[in-house]
Amino acid sequence: MRVYVLRRLAQSALTLLGVSILVFVILRVLPGNPARMLLPEGAPESAVEELNRQLGLREPLLVQYGLFLRSVVRGDFGQSFQYRAPALTVVLERLPATIHLSLVAMLFTVGVGVSLGILAAVRRGTRYDVAGMILAVLGQSLPNFWLGIMLILFFGVALRWLPTSGFSGWTSLILPGITLAAFPTALVARLTRSSMLEILHRDYIRTGRAKGLAERRVVLHHALRNAAIPVLTVLGLQIGALLGGAVITESVFAWPGMGKLIVDAIFFRDFPVVQTVLILSATVFVAINLIVDLLYTVIDPRIRYS
Amino acid sequence: MTDGPLDLPPAPWPGRRHLTMAIGSVLLGLVVVASALAPALTAYDPLKPSFAQRLAPPWGFGGTAAHVLGTDNLGRDILARLLHGGRASLALAVSAVVIAAVVGVVVGLLASWGGEGTDAVIMRVADVQLAFPVIMLAIALVAVIGTNPVALVGVLALSGWVLYARTVRAHVLTIRRLEFIEAAHALGATDLRLVLRHVLPNTVAPILVIGSSQFATMVLLESGLSFLGMGIQAPQPSWGLMLSEGRDYLSNAWWLATAPGVMISLVVLGANLLGDGLRDLLDPHLG
Q: From first to last of its 306 residues, what are the pLDDT tens digits of chain A?
């Protein structure tokens, strides 16, 4: 167990190192003149020279990467010239809005997705099953930017029930939350269904029924607990997808989070902010998946890594 | 005791997988054919503004049959823009899927056949790439290398290779222990021959399944990029871009944003259904 934890930690550290290399390649190696790119347009030649010297851009690539890694580890991601503040501060200020939105979407995904999946599995072949799975296929096929716009059109423009942009109280979370949750909810519903179907014909379920347990207890206690394991893996992976989905959802609803920030930053060519968002979201993703992997051993005592 | 599904009702519709595949192929086929035949199907120029015809509603909603789906804010025929836009979107998505598949399969074979060191390196690289949300990586790359079609295909393909590499690798690791591989090896077949003649053909089914559902992902990603203004650039028609332009007219011209979304959904739905059907048909264990 301890060996497994250590190996998993080392693996995550290695992945993060790779993340820094990839970001370095994209933002420092691919553009011909990174200093020009990292500075606002029309910056004087002296500023370019200054940044070249500061970032060591005249040095060999390996030295440049060393300098880059050192500043990133120190939490120095450069200055955002759009906001005239350290890029990390700018990004961290936007992080809570994205976390709120992702939490709402996650709650919706787990609540609606898992219930829909259980219902479809238990009532297999009935119209509940068919309706649930049609909803799930639709949820996976409607592009979230379009779904968001249609929700705005319907609930915002036509019915005027809900706010459609920015942040003004908890009702502001409903439409973007649903938009962001649609895809993972559909995925979780389908996965819960197939996972439950597989478990529901195991011997121990039959035993449970045979000894007279209430169906409710058999389904929710004995079956769901075991069916939850693959669902949990996917939920962990979906957190990364939520961060990606937030890019588009936040742009549609003018939500003041990290996703809208990176889109705006790209249009302003504010690359220090772009690089911060990239590194931060990859780190969050790696950390969450590490936690999920370690959680397995708690949820499923059969899993014992040597 | 077998572990057969004794206490379950029989599967809902026996012909379901064929039905799903048929519906998927028809949806996808319709959009592909209509886009391919765009110049023959519509007489309107998708680029030329016609200010006298601005924001004409669709036929049946107060518009005329001259512009079945209405016109946009510059008076351009929406149907014409949809069909012409489809050509670009579909071509980009197909090229990206093919490139991603070729690269992914080669890398997957290398990982599974090239020794432990190669395998470890390739799988770590895959981990690194998967740590980024696809769209974030894509917009950062597009911002640096530009939005020309070649760059777009490259970015899309880059986002897709990992899936093939991982699947092929997992598949080969199982196949290579099977007896027919051992037999071929004992008969003196070289590694290259083993891989090309005996291993590769056995990975075709999962690759087809992934390719078909990945086509859906690519169409979504491309239209997502265009929606954000980082894909196909105006005035070229593109579904994502049309959606984003239509956003400003939600209160007085709902059809601008509605029509392109329906097109994207049809393609994605079609490709997803086709992929699901193929998976059930070719490899029930793919999950």
A: 778 888 889 989 999 999 999 999 888 877 767 777 777 777 788 888 887 777 777 778 888 888 889 988 888 888 887 888 899 999 999 999 999 999 999 999 999 999 999 888 888 888 888 888 888 888 888 898 899 988 888 888 777 777 777 667 777 888 899 999 999 999 999 899 988 888 888 888 888 888 888 888 888 878 888 787 778 778 877 877 888 889 999 999 888 999 999 999 988 888 889 999 999 999 988 998 888 888 777 766 666 554
The Cα–Cα gap between A124 and B51 comes to 55
Cβ–Cβ gap A277/B136 under 8 Å: yes
Which among B20, B136, B245 is the top mutation candidate for probing chain A, defined by the most A β-carbons within 10 Å of its own β-carbon? B136
| Contact call for residues B44 and B30 (beta carbons, < 8 A) | no
Query: How far A65 CA sits from the closest chain B CA (Å)?
Result: 17
B chain contacts of residue A271, beta-carbon cutoff 8 Å: 143
A140 Cα to chain B: minimum distance (Å): 8
Place of tokens 């110049």: B39
B247/B258 Cα distance (integer angstroms): 10
C-alpha to C-alpha distances, A270 to A228, A233, B61, B62, B115, nearest whole angstrom:
42, 35, 44, 46, 42
Residue A209: closest C-alpha in chain B: B7
CB contact under 8 Å between A146 and B124, yes or no, is no
Report d(CA B257, CA B249) in Å as an integer.
8
- Residue A97 is encoded by which pair of tokens? 């809005």
Q: How many residues does chain B have?
A: 287
CB-CB neighbours of B184 under 10 Å: 16
From B1, B244, B264, residue closest to A203, measured CB to CB:
B1
Q: Are B12 and A125 within 8 A, CB to CB? A: yes
CA angle A43, B136, A157 (to 5 degrees): 100
